[in-house]
């Protein structure tokens, strides 16, 4: 089941009070971070915020960075760079898989061509021998 993504509404299970408690922050802080674009919790059809484990990880990162004296704009930039970095790592993995598949296809095609070449070389030798030593009429 690795690689399967759970839908956001199933993944985001924590209401704001629980997410705030788990992250050690005040619910108002979570609302501020959302307004500032640092976090984007899932919203139910009724508008209730639901936080996922990934959201809690991000809140922990935000808390860590602000604790080091980085302002909100700096935190936003760091998060954006982290997301871009993750995208690029995923792209490199995808390209490596694609390259490996292309190499495997090329190897299989080369092996098939070599087998065809061997078969044709054998056929040429047989025909050459027939032409060199035709059977005598009976």
Characterization of this structure:
- There is one protein chain.
- With 138 residues, the protein is mainly alpha-helical.
- The chain has a domain at 9-70: Multidrug-efflux Transporter Regulator, Chain: A, Domain 2, CATH 1.10.1660.
- It is 70% helix and 3% strand.
- It has helices at residues 8-11, 16-23, 27-35, 53-67, 72-132, and strands at residues 42-43, 49-50.
- Strand 1 and strand 2 (49-50) form a beta hairpin.
- The mean pLDDT is 90.
Quick structural gist:
By secondary structure, the protein is mainly alpha-helical.
What distinguishing features does this structure have?
138 residues; mainly alpha; Multidrug-efflux Transporter Regulator, Chain: A, Domain 2; two-stranded antiparallel sheet; 5 helices; 2 strands
Envelope shape: rod-shaped
CATH class of the domain at 9-70: Mainly Alpha
Q: So how many helices?
A: 5
Strand content: under 5%
Give the helix level as a range of percent: over 70%
| CA distance, first residue to last residue | 74 Å
- The CATH topology annotation of the domain at 9-70 reads as Multidrug-efflux Transporter Regulator, Chain: A, Domain 2
Average pLDDT rating: 90
Number of strands: 2
Contiguous uncertain segments of 5+ residues:
none
Assembly category: single chain
The SSE string, one letter per element, is HHHEEHH
Judging by the overall fold, what is the CATH architecture of the domain at 9-70? Orthogonal Bundle
Radius of gyration: 32 Å
Main beta sheet = 2 strands, antiparallel
Question: What order do the strands of the largest sheet run in, or round the barrel if closed?
Answer: 1-2
Structural class by sheet pairing and helices: mainly alpha
